[in-house]
Write a structure and sequence with these properties.
Shape: globular
CATH class: Alpha Beta
Order of helices and strands: EEEEEEEEHEHHEHHH
Largest sheet: 6 strands, mixed
Distance between the termini: 37 Å
Number of strands: 10
Strand order of the largest sheet: 3-4-5-6-9-10
Strand content: 15-25%
C-alpha cells in the first residue's frame, strides 16, 4: 500500500518489530480515523504472537489471528495462558460485537468444534448455515460474539462438556481452564477432520 499511497500512516503493535509503522500502539490507546468518522480502542491480545493487538469500536472487533469464528490462532510466540487470557478478554466484550478476523477458516473450525462438542445444537445449526454460505461463495465473516460464546471451543474451557472431552482426548486430568484450553489447542493443531 505504501508504494501506491506514500505517507499513509501505519498503525500497529508497539511490541513488534515492523519497519513501516508510524504509530506504535499500546493497550487502551485510541486510534482516530477522522476521514471515516471512526475511533477504535487498542487491546493487547498476546498469544498468537507476543505483540498481537486488536481494535475495538462501534461494536466491531478487528482481531487478526487471535479469535476466528469457531476457532483461535495457533500459539506461535505466546503461551496457552496468554492466549486464554486474551480470548477471555475478548469474550467480555458486548455480545452484539461483530468479529472480523484475518482468515476464512470457519468451515474447518466448525468440524473441529463438532468433534469437541458433538451434542452442541448451536454448532450443528451454524455448520449448516456456513455450508450454505460457502456453497454460494459468500463469507462467514463477520461473526457475532454471542454466537462465538455458544460454538467456539476456545471460548468454552469452563463448560463441563468441553472439559470432559479435552480430558478424554488428552488422556489426563486437566485441573483448570487454562490447561483445558491448552489441551484443546494442541488437539486442534493435530486435528484431521
Amino acid at each position: 500500500m505504501l508504494e501506491h499511497f506514500p505517507g499513509l500512516p501505519g498503525y500497529g503493535p508497539a511490541h513488534e518489530n515492523i519497519d513501516t509503522l508510524t504509530q506504535h500502539l499500546h493497550d487502551n490507546d485510541e486510534v482516530h480515523l477522522p476521514e471515516l468518522g471512526l475511533n477504535f480502542r487498542v487491546l493487547e491480545v498476546p498469544g498468537h504472537t507476543r505483540g498481537h493487538i486488536a481494535y475495538f469500536g462501534h461494536s466491531w472487533l478487528f482481531c487478526g489471528d487471535t479469535l476466528f469464528s469457531a476457532g483461535c490462532g495457533r500459539l506461535f510466540e505466546g503461551t496457552a495462558a496468554q492466549m486464554h487470557t486474551s480470548l477471555s478478554r475478548l469474550a467480555g466484550l458486548p455480545g452484539d460485537t461483530r468479529v472480523y478476523c484475518a482468515h476464512e477458516y470457519t468451515q474447518a473450525n466448525l468440524r473441529f468444534a463438532q468433534a469437541v462438542e458433538p451434542e452442541n445444537a448451536d454448532i450443528a445449526a451454524y455448520q449448516r448455515e456456513v455450508e450454505a454460505l460457502r456453497a454460494r461463495d459468500e463469507p462467514t465473516i463477520p461473526s457475532v460474539l454471542d454466537r462465538e460464546l455458544r460454538i467456539n471451543p476456545f471460548l468454552r474451557s469452563a463448560i463441563p462438556a468441553v472439559h470432559a472431552m479435552a480430558e478424554k482426548h488428552a488422556g489426563i486430568s486437566l485441573p483448570d481452564n487454562v490447561s483445558v484450553f491448552a489441551a484443546v489447542r494442541q488437539w486442534k493443531d493435530n486435528f484431521r477432520g
